[in-house]
Amino acid sequence: MKASIVTKSVLALLIAAGVSACNQNKTETKPAAAASTAGTTAATPEIVYINQDSLVSKYDYIKDMDKRLGDKSKAAQSDVQTRQQAIQREVAEYQKGAATMSADQRQATEQRLQRKGQEFQQYQQNAGAQVQSDQMNEQTKLYEKLVDFTKAYAKEKGYKMILTYQKGNATVLYGDPSLDVTNDVIKRLNDAYTKDKK
């Protein structure tokens, strides 16, 4: 499973979350007139962005999440393969000895193998559904974690909007590097995640 592809789609939702969070904080931000006085040279920008590609590759929580999901997926695939091979061995053994069996024995064995095959298919579907469910749960946790962080970060810094930028994404064609808060965000997220792990 490609967990990082799903991760990127969840992070794309941060644009909407950032806009929503910043709109909720409008009453708590500085008035535009005060921020744009003629003599002020270091006014706080109202809109900043986070490089999504860097966030995905450098945020330790995402790395650990991708590893957890990858390990669960591999374990599920291995278990399914083991069960499939066991059934295939039983079918091969039946085929070898079918000629020496009575009609009743053949019929009983075929029915048993058919039941096992149906049970295996159901197990395989359930295993796949469980992996998808685990991915969705992890993505939901990640999304909530990033939304909560982004809301607090915007409030602390006085930003009205935090966007995500991704190379090749036509939504943002250019962002002034002075508006890029990616490194600060990743550092804070990793610091908080390290604290949570202890």
Automatic annotation (TrEMBL):
Residues 1-21 form the signal peptide. The keyword Signal applies. Keywords: Signal. Belongs to the Skp family. This is Outer membrane protein. The lineage of its organism: Bacteria, Pseudomonadati, Bacteroidota, Sphingobacteriia, Sphingobacteriales.
